[in-house]
Design goal:
The strands form 2 sheets. This protein has a 3-stranded antiparallel β-sheet with strand order 3-5-4. It has a two-stranded antiparallel ribbon with strand order 1-2. It folds into 2 domains: about 30 residues; about 90 residues, Orthogonal Bundle (Arc Repressor Mutant, subunit A). It has 5 helices and 5 strands. By secondary structure, the chain is an alpha+beta fold. It is globular and about 60 Å long. Helices cover about 55% and strands about 15% of the residues. A hairpin with a 5-residue loop joins strand 4 and strand 5.
């Protein structure tokens, strides 16, 4: 038996495979902050405080946790420059470039959705 998803008929096995793939992606880059951090770093290397100032509403603890997750998953590189003072910088890795199409699609959809809400409101 086939299922129709987004106007495309797919088998139950393909549906399961898609659910698993999307689940894996959301596990790694999901949440409120991860993609915002990656987008912020796309303009270049930043220190922790620069990132926190650039991302409105993120706490230091949350930023620290999210940066650790992004580093573990290969999206961010952390570099410590011995001081004094000790300086820690974060930069996107080449692996973060694999999210380019995802970010572009989200940007286009978000822009369209915001415009739709403005027209309706």
């Amino acid at each position: 038996m086939e299922t129709e998803i987004l106007n495309e008929k797919i088998s139950p096995q393909e549906c399961t495979a898609r659910l698993n793939a999307v689940g894996d992606a959301l596990y790694v880059i999901g949440g409120k902050w991860k993609l915002r951090i990656i987008i912020t770093l796309s303009s270049g290397t930043k220190r922790f405080n620069e990132l926190q100032r650039a991302i409105d509403g993120i706490s230091a603890k949350m930023l620290s946790n999210e940066l650790k997750d992004l580093e573990i998953n290969g999206f961010v590189r952390r570099t410590v420059h011995e001081g004094p003072p000790v300086v820690v910088e974060y930069e996107p890795t080449s692996y973060s470039d694999t999210l380019h199409d995802v970010l572009e699609s989200l940007n286009k959809w978000g822009t369209m959705h915001r415009e739709k809400l403005r027209k309706e409101g």
